[in-house]
Amino acid sequence: MCGIVGYIGDRKAQNLLISGLKRLEYRGYDSAGIATLSSTGQLTCLREKGKVAQLAALQVTNEVDDSIGIGHTRWATHGTPSIVNAHPHTVGRITLVHNGIIENYQDLKQILESKGYSFKSDTDTEVLTALIDSLYKDDVSLLDAVLGSLQLVVGAYGIAVLASNKPNHIVAARSGSPLIIGLGDEETFIASDASALVGHTNQAIYLKEGEIAVCRAGTVELYDIAANPITPAVETIESDMQAIQKDGYDHFLLKEIHEQPEALRSTLAGRLRSGSLYAHLGGINMSDTELREIRNIIVVGCGTANYAGQLAAYLIEQFTEDVSIQVEIASEFRYRSFHIPENSVALIVSQSGETADTLACLTELKRRGVRCLGIVNAVGSTITREVDGGVYVHVGPEISVASTKAFTSQVAAMILFGLMIAQAKGTSTQELSTFINDLNDLPTEIEKLITDLEPDIKTLAKSYAGYDHALYFGRNTLFPIALEGALKLKEISYIQAEAYAAGELKHGPIALVDDSFFEVALIADNWLYEKSKSNLIEVNARGGHVIAITDSKKHIQAETIVRVSTSLTQLTPLLFNVVLQLFAYYVSLERGNDVDQPRNLAKSVTVE
Ligand code: M6R
Prior knowledge:
CATH topology of the largest domain: Glutamine Phosphoribosylpyrophosphate, subunit 1, domain 1
Structural class: alpha/beta
Strand order of the largest sheet: 3-2-4-1-10-9-11-15
Radius of gyration: 26 Å
Distance between the termini: 11 Å
Oligomer: single chain
Bound molecules: 5-amino-5-deoxy-1-O-phosphono-D-mannitol
């Protein structure tokens, strides 16, 4: 979603802002802009629709040596993607970039119009800019004008603000949209995401909700919303340059699919053990007595994180007999009048740790006294700061908009949590050996699968890339995989992909089967094999173009068959998922799409 960068120091701000925006490209955006100030207060503002590369081209003919500035990648919310709606916005002496949504902007706009302000764009951001300008007077500091404005605003924001007559500081503020201040040697950086700071500094202040920072070259003053000074806590950030490079792969997505074995090893390191204490998660902050008391787990997440929860629920409920598991879509759950069973614990699942709907559920669950644990990847993200404990999945930066390695490790982390509950309730290692062994073997099995099947999947993708519709189906643990596989295909290939529990086909979706569709049948070699095979036969009988993916060696009839060869028993769905990730990748490539930054999507969905 939208990204913010800012710089003040003695280097050329334009270059640093553009390279910072390039690092934020993976978040998804549709326009970009930068504004810098000269020491005499001359503003140079460049904005472009489309990619940061187009903005960089604009810089060539508008180059300035200014050493203070702010920049933005915009993912349109209010108003279409266009130059006039792109940030930074300037009104009077104020220039501003903004992530989030100002909900009462129409009311504020009317008030400002009555005071003589007029507006060029359709954005809530221009209204906020005008509001700050209206309060910014010769006897009112920029900090006070920003503070005064934010008290009138309803909504979410991360902002960075320049005043043309004060080319020596930037004011940054956060409420509901993350901001990080990076401290360098005589220079200060502002970013909505730590990846924009990598290579410049690893010393950072994560702004907390309601905090405001006055950033000068190399120094920062911090205030709360009531203007009380706060002592900043400087932290060391851990991302490294290597982790955000493509490493010879054509796309981040392919790199991230291939990284899954290593990512899983990091998720499991020190947490999956041998002997009677088979699982250990240091960060959940729960005693064995508290774990024993759990009777209900509420898993909350969006998109892929939700599907990871659905798969984990199928798996965990097999070995935690007196625990029920409910998996909720965060954007729905936050507005339901839900009842919380006794002895519940919530798992808040998010790769980015910033998803607005997931965060809202966390706030509500905490308000209602539920212990909330994060299953999160992004270190230091908002969810990790708000939960009562949790598990970092440690898969490293996931840059591609389509989530892959995070899914696999989220499932593994949730199984580890289930194992901890089982362990506390006295279940022996022997009873859980199939899950423990599968977790141990999973990284190597994924490696083997990629080596064995990737060339065939690439060829297969060519044959099916011409279709515009697809139907995925599977039973039991392969139902969440059907959902996730279809999501992967639709988001990067733009093929309409429906996913159903295979037993549901006869209740409606089988009517879709015709020559404009292909079908993906997921068939596990387990006690449901014959039933799944029947579903496949029913689709075949109606002229389906079926790709059957199976770990069975038995004879099966389908247009195309992909055989997964594995020694796993419980976690084979995660192997099927890797097949579907690779399939989606190669179909997208074949169709000539922007694999890592698909249209209309953002990596981190920080608005509702
Ligand atoms: O950062 P999160 O895990 O909270 O993100 C949740 C979804 O937005 C995300 O999984 C989305 O569905 C991806 N584009 C899926 O590939």
